[in-house]
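User: For documentation purposes, I need each entry recorded in a consistent format: the amino acid sequence on its own, followed directly by the corresponding structure tokens. There are two entries in this batch. Please keep commentary to a minimum and don't merge the entries.

Assistant: Recorded as requested. Entry 1:
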Amino acid sequence: MRASSQSNGGCDFVADPRNSALIQPIFWTPQTDPATLPLTAGPSPAGDLLLRAEDLHAHTIIEHDPGLIRLALRGEPHDVALFNVDDARPLGAFVMFDELTPDRLTAIERLWHAMFGKRVPPDPRMTLQRRQRARQMLRHLPHRRRASLPSAQN
């Protein structure tokens, strides 16, 4: 459920304005993040493998609202936006055709591997060098923050 703010006319917010942004999960829309997959009810697949909404909910770690969930599969988070879903029909992915289509297809492939117990390929949008650099930057962040605080000795 979305929180409303009394100081802003009771408008709905994606984040709860009473809590710090540092402790709230961030959900991006499929238009913004190609790894957020829009899934919808689809036709029955030709083979035996199929995915239903209940399969996703079994792996949900955060449910922002019924249509936007974060899954934990094989140690990695996957954000999913559910549209026109019913429990009786299998799910299909809706792929937007834009400049991010190759990234969207990669995200679908990675989710498919994770859901069906296959080895998940690394996300090619984040190279090994970028991952290592981000890890180093995060490691140094607490040190920089302490160094910027005023000293208690005056």
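Entry 2:
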Amino acid sequence: MKTSIASRPARSSRPLSPRSAEFKSLDQAHQAALQMLLAFQTLVTRLDNEGLDAEAKKSAQAVLDFFDGPGRHHHEEEESKVFPGLLASSDAELAGHVRRLQQDHGWLEQDWSELRPHVQAAAEGYNGYDLPMLMAALPVFDALYRDHIALEETVVYPAAKRQLSALHKHSGGKPLVQ
């Protein structure tokens, strides 16, 4: 006997998992990072095609502000709130992924420290940026960032959310990540 969707009884509702609220800022930071990587690519293309104009200065300032601020703070939040519990788990493969992400954070910071002076020069309206260097280094920075985000979103965050959900059940529903 075939049952239509409309005639099926409604599913029982279950309380929302804490993961959606508690990981919202982390997920938003990834979306912002992807947007800033695109803005960074657009900036380098603009510098190559148009030179340093008002739009390039504005774009450079936005890139600078993000990678000096929210991008960096996002990694600090992961290091302090997401990674410790996963590193303490008995899952060696998962812990290996987390250590790789920690290493990525170091590499991203190092890459940014090399890119930053050139972006800052453009943001301040100086032609002291090295366009060939930006053109060569940005694809490496971009690829590492995207690969890093993909590993977090497909492996590490789901594991952290499962772990958080289990801890949340045992904590009486109190938030564990702000």
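Summary note for entry 2:
Confidence is low (pLDDT under 50) at residues 11-18.
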